[in-house]
Here is the input.
Amino acid sequence: MGQYYHAYTKNATEERVWSLQCTNFTETRNFDWYIGLKLTEHSWCGNVLTDAMSFYLYKNPTQLAWVGDYAYDAEVYEKCWKDEDSEFNFVVSNESFDYAGKWLVNHTTKEAFPLDKPAGEMWVMYPISLLTAIGNGKGGGDYYGKNKMIGKWAMHILSIEDFAPTDYTIIQPPNFNA
Here is the structure.
């Protein structure tokens, strides 16, 4: 069976569980707005979900995890999958997030890498959902590539910034397309 995901965020002002279906889809069932609930269905740069999350993380340090419905042992599993009052359908914008020159910053490990799209790449996997996935490998639609960074930043405090902090370690962007 396929594993579905919800994104969990917590920062100084709020705690949210993000349904991975945008309001436009849940209200209309118009499949032009369907993004996919499985990890690899929606984990690519430039769709309305990843852009919405990127706008949310921009200059907003936030604890983040992409929690699968088979991740029963996850610290936030109950919150993500059993508490119906916590679910939030994200609202999409027609504006695309501009990743050029932006940095993904991990404030927990004090690491950062550039989010620029590799030259010549049309489809690029969205590193944030993959880095923060909890439960990957337990269902269909999960990431089964070779990159060992999958899930390593789950529940870490992340943000997208214009510059990498000078006292953080710059790392190579993980290549989830390989």
